Amino acid sequence: MKLRKIDCLEVTKHVCGDLDEHIDSAECRAIKKHLESCPNCTAYLDSLKKTVLIYQRIPNPRFPAKSRKKLFATLKIKPK
Amino acid sequence: MKTKHSSRSSESPERAIIRKAQAGDERAFARLVKDYESVVYSFAYKVCHDKDKAEEAWQDTFVNVFRKLKQFDGKSKFTTWLYSIVVNNCLMKHRRSKLEQATVRIDAPEGFHEDPVLDAGGHVVQTIPSWKDTPMDSLMNKELRTLLDAAIEKLPLDYRVVFILRDVEGQSAEAVSKMLKLSVPAVKSRLRRARVFLREQLNEYMTS
């Protein structure tokens, strides 16, 4: 099947909408084809992936254990 | 036919604790709190972006869990149900404080040309700068952390919640649409705008 020609603007809309999702769709195949020859869209997609990755790497804050005591007191429960 | 006994013998330890807590067993409820306290707190912190507000959201969430646990029907994951309660608490507080109800504007990325620049050989010239290729863990320094915090704080809450649920917590678009009572396309649109907004905020640091 012949792939539809796709431009950078379309690619940036789709890649940021779905990143790696819908990999078998016609849209995605056209995007992949475009990415093979477009360093700009490749750099853009890479930067979006890194944005997500960086936020995933932020360490979780430590849970303040005193909150649990306060909750049980509020609910008037004695779990032990 | 499945008997009550056989269906219970196949239930997960988590489901057994929930069932006991639903029946009023305080020890089971305490166990549930301990099992999920960190998940709820870290999610509340990522959404509220403030320790005091996160703690308040945490308390409100578990008070709601205590009161509404009988309403949990087990059709969704327990964490999905918890996330919905945290999100509702955070959004309600936010709307009460009458902060912004903004939308996120998307501009073309720096270096983007509608008609790409071509070299003498007809190949596309890269005008959008590449981001640093340093391993991510060594990138997490104080300067970047401050930038990440500032960027996500600038992102309107309606978008921030979608970004955190989808990209950080790994919830599906369908689950997020149910939690936020939005259509799946609306979830995807908010996610797209959130990602682009955050990328723009980090672009200078990541390309300098």
Rg of chain B over CA atoms, rounded to whole Å, is: 22 Å
Report the structural category of chain B: mainly alpha
Q: How much of the polypeptide of chain A forms β-strand, as a percent range?
A: under 5%
Output the helix-strand order of chain B: HHHHHHHHHH
What's the oligomerization state? heterodimer
CATH class of the largest domain in chain B: Mainly Alpha
Approximate helicity band of chain A: 55-70%
How would a textbook summarize the main sheet of chain B? none
Shape of chain B: elongated
Order of helices and strands of chain A: HHHH
User: Termini of chain B, distance in Å?
Assistant: 66 Å
Task: Explain what this protein looks like in three dimensions.
- The complex is a heterodimer of chains A (80) and B (208).
- Chain A is mainly alpha-helical and 80 residues long.
- Chain A has one domain.
- Chain A is built from four helices and no strands.
- In chain A, helix 1 (8-18) packs across helix 2, helix 1 packs parallel to helix 3 and helix 2 (26-37) packs across helix 3.
- Chain A is rod-shaped, with a radius of gyration of 23 Å.
- With 208 residues, chain B is mostly helical.
- Chain B has two domains: 4-96, RNA polymerase sigma factor, region 2, helix turn helix motif (Rna Polymerase Sigma Factor, Chain: A), CATH 1.10.1740; 102-208, Arc Repressor Mutant, subunit A.
- Chain B has helices at 4-9, 13-22, 26-48, 51-68, 78-96, 136-139, 142-154, 157-168, 173-180, 184-207.
- In chain B, helix 3 packs across helix 8, helix 5 packs antiparallel against helix 8 (157-168) and helix 7 runs antiparallel to helix 10.
- The model of chain B has no long low-confidence stretch (mean pLDDT 86).
